[in-house]
Amino acid sequence: MTGLAGPSPDWSDWSGRQHCTPARVLRPATEDELAEGVRAAASDGLVVRPVGSGHSFTPLCVTDGVQVDLSRLDRLLDVDDAGVATAQAGITLHALSAALHERGRALENLGDVDTQTLAGALATGTHGTGGAFGNLSAQMVGGRLVTAAGTVVDVADGSAHGADLLLGARVSLGALGVMSEVRVRTVPAFRLHKVEEVRPLAEVLEDLDELVAGHDHVELYALPWSSRSLLLRSRRTDEPAAPPPRWRTWLTDELVNNTGLGLLQRTGARFPAATPTLGRLTGLLASGSSRLDDSHRVFASSRRVRFTESEWALPRAAVGEAVLAVLALIERDRLPVTFPIEVRVAAEDDALLSTASGRASAYVAVHQFAGADDTAYFREVERVMLAMDGRPHWGKKHRAGADLLAPRYPGWDRFQAVRDRLDPVGVFTNDHLAHVLGPPAALRGPS
Predict the structure, then answer these.
(1) Residues 6+ apart with CB under 8 A from 8
(2) What is the mean pLDDT of residues 128-151?
(3) pTM of the model
(4) Which of 145, 221, 266, 370 is most solvent-facing, going by the fewest CB within 10 Å?
């Protein structure tokens, strides 16, 4: 079969924590090859899981069945007169941003990592920051989806497959099928002026609502074992780009943010008792900077230090309490943590499984060095976040199951109805999806 490989080598995600050996790997170069491969897998009773760049920290892509590698479906196909871009699902956000920039367009918001594939970023609810901006999936207006039957449907055509198909496909976890194409809104290309400064954490948390209201994009890094924080504020501008000299970019992006961070994490992993000292030293050495450049070059940065991550979406009003609670538990339990706690915000949206569905949200993300044990830290953070009506980021580590998650999403039952129509037997359901979404319709008892 064209585009179909035999037994694959072991696959692992970016963090090196998730592994599997699929029976087959499908690497389609066309939508027809993708549909044919899904039909063959379903006929053979194999679970199908799409995989992008492997930047999720959960077992979303793990399967011993068929893993669909979309890396050959990687082109921007069109940008229409209304600014709607049509791209193949396997294009990375980095490549898509560069291609849009050549056409004078841009995505209105991005996260701080752009190595993910477009479809993978949408499926997990990837987001940037900005009180007036939704997550990436809010920009999706349509696309083409290969279903469990191997048929191709247009997700914006609600007449044939239900009015909720688009709202479900925006954040789907790959449970509805495999996207072959995605249509997203774009905006005229713009630049960002980002200013980073060190400020007392208590002061920033007290002023956070005002900061979010007064700036296009606000991000906060709270430093464990320190009273200081790094505040990032960006404004959208048409001013000419003024990128920093190459030596300064190397100094901040490579020497400090990657080499220096990596050394700090390796030292902490080897000498856990030194963690408080290392944390206080990080706070003392933190410094500010500024940058004015094309938006996609400012939104994203290089991340070469491997880590694991857990992130939670909270009601906006709870973010200050949540950050202080995480810092307190780190010190109380003397956890070996020096990675900053990241805070971002997003506007509410209407995607059925979006972590910002129906409410303006703040995100609190915690990280641990890939070479260190994150179990105790992430378990305690999860306890704090669930008590504050938190919703776990679908691509970040958590233990919450369907029974716990269902009441937290107003569109939960509507998503399950779409899933039941498109994949009643669970062609796309691996063990992880069965845990977080529940079993497919064919394996559920009567409601």
Answers:
(1) 21, 22, 23, 24, 25, 67
(2) 96
(3) 0.91
(4) 266
Residue 362 pLDDT > 70: yes
Mean pLDDT in residue range 98-113: 97
The answer to whether domain 191-399 has CATH 3.30.1330.30 is no
- pLDDT at 280 (0 to 100): 67
Domains 76-188 and 191-399 fall in the same CATH topology: no
Label each residue of 72-127 as H, E or C: CCCCEEEECCCCEEEEECCCEHHHHHHHHHHCCEECCCCCCCCCCEHHHHHHCCCC
Q: What are phi and psi of 277, to 5 degrees?
A: -65, -45
The answer to whether the CB of 293 falls within 8 A of the CB of 191 is yes
174: which 2 tokens?
Answer: 């790959």
For domain 76-188, give the CATH number: 3.30.465.10
User: Quick one: what percent of the chain has pLDDT higher than 70?
Assistant: 87
pLDDT bin (cut points 50, 70, 90) of residue 123 is very high
Domain definitions of the chain by residue range: 76-188, 191-399
- Separation between Cα atoms, residue 57 and residue 34, nearest integer Å: 25
